[in-house]
Amino acid sequence: MSQPLLVIAAGGTGGHMFPAQALAEVMLDRGWRVDLSTDARGARYADNFPPAVRRRVVAAGTTQRVGIAPKIQAPFQIAGGVAAALWQFRKDRPACVAGFGGYPAFPALAAAWMMKLPRLIHEQNGVLGRVNEIFATRVDALACGTWPTELPEGVSGIHTGNPLRASVLERAAYQYTPPGDWPMDVLVIGGSQGASILSDVVPAGLATLPDDLRHRLTVAHHAREADHAAVVQAYANADIRADVQPFFHDVADRMMRAQLIISRSGASSVADIAAIGRPSILVPLKIAKRGEQEANAKGLVEQGAAIMLREDEFDPDTLASVVQDVLTTPDLAERMAMSALSLGIPDAAEKLADLVARVAAR
User: Fold this and answer.
1) What b/e string do you get for 114-145 counting C-beta neighbours within 10 Å, with b at 16 or more?
2) pLDDT band at 20 (very low <50, low <70, confident <90, very high)
3) Chain centroid to CA 337
4) Hey, what long-range contacts does 315-320 have (CB within 8 A, 24 or more apart)?
5) Residue 281 CB partners (closer than 8 Å, separation 6+)
6) How far is CA 51 from the centre of its chain?
């Protein structure tokens, strides 16, 4: 019997692609073949997928883009993508199609629905994204990474957690070194594309810390290309050791070493922080229209594992006060780390893989 095929359909951001990658790793280990269906943008985030995963680039579009031309082009792009997915699925019929959200996931999910193939979606956030909302009533199962997740009336979700990449799993529950009178690491991450507000506020806030604390810090700061030079200069002016990069390929290692993480509250970031078990300051994305980043942060905050600073209260002085509290109170930092760890779901990818197998067997 030939190996069953799983088609993973995912949009082009780390929030969608990281859990998709984690599922791909598990399914390959279980003897499945795996294809990734995404658009050209999504393919750029697929470098760390296992080499055995075939990339299928399909046309995709969204009516959410600004401007008349993109809105006119979107239906034709979507139709072309669906047609390409239908053609591919007829050549090599999937045993299951798993969607992770983002508009590039639409063509494969639509084709799976039209062909009545076994299909499921996984929602990373506490609120459904647009594409997952469309398919919530058109799939055989809906897996939830954050719990609880706001779901349409009559739709039931299965809490699997957010799948973790192998690089994170290898460092899950790694012993935490609390802050003290020794060198300390602070990690600043703004999601897969960085965050300008973190680049504006964090260096300015850390610059106001007392000299003895500031000089013990080493900061790893994930900054957009456009912000890179200014962030490097800001840390230099504050006499803070800093490694500023547009992308960290070793983010799990940096999380493991960190005494404190300052981060957006994207679903994958929150899941990674919980699995490794580190104190965090979470800054939800204000323009997230459905409030999903606040929903993602809620569990860690309520458990005492994280401190949430909304954008309208995220200023250098407030940040400095919170950072100083955590890094000068080892007992607090250690309690936050243990609380984060209690919310981690290191076997989320295995749970989702089990769900894929059940759906495929129906």
Assistant:
1) eeebbbbbbbbbbbbbebbbbbbeebbbbbbb
2) very high
3) 20
4) 315/201, 315/205, 316/201, 316/204, 316/205, 316/207, 316/208, 317/205, 317/208, 318/205, 319/201, 319/202, 319/205, 319/206, 319/262, 319/281, 320/205, 320/206, 320/208, 320/209
5) 260, 261, 262, 263, 306, 307, 308, 309, 319, 322, 323, 326
6) 21
> Token digits for 175?
């012993």
Residue 325 CA: distances (Å) to CA of 96, 162, 213, 253, 254? 49, 30, 11, 24, 21
* Closest to 290 in 3D by CA, of 53, 100, 142, 131: 131
**144 CB-near residues (< 8 Å, 6+ apart):** 122, 123, 151, 157, 158, 159, 160
> What tokens were used for 95?
């045993």
Structure tokens at 51: 């080499």
CA distance 254 to 252: 5
Nearest in space to 97 (alpha carbons), one of 113, 76, 80, 81? 113
| Contact call for residues 178 and 334 (beta carbons, < 8 A) | yes
Instruction: Please write the tens of the pLDDT for every residue from 136-183.
Output: 999 999 999 998 899 999 999 999 999 999 999 999 999 999 999 999
Pick from 195, 202, 190, 194: nearest CA to 315: 202
Q: What is the per-residue pLDDT across 64-108, written as a single tens digit (0 to 9) for each?
A: 544 565 555 667 678 888 999 999 999 999 999 999 999 999 999
How remote is the C-alpha of 250 from its chain's centroid? Answer: 15
Question: Are 51 and 22 contacting, i.e. CB atoms less than 8 angstroms apart?
Answer: no
Residue 305 gets which letter from DSSP? S
Cα 88 from chain centroid (whole Å) = 28
- 231, 194 Cβ separation under 8 angstroms: no
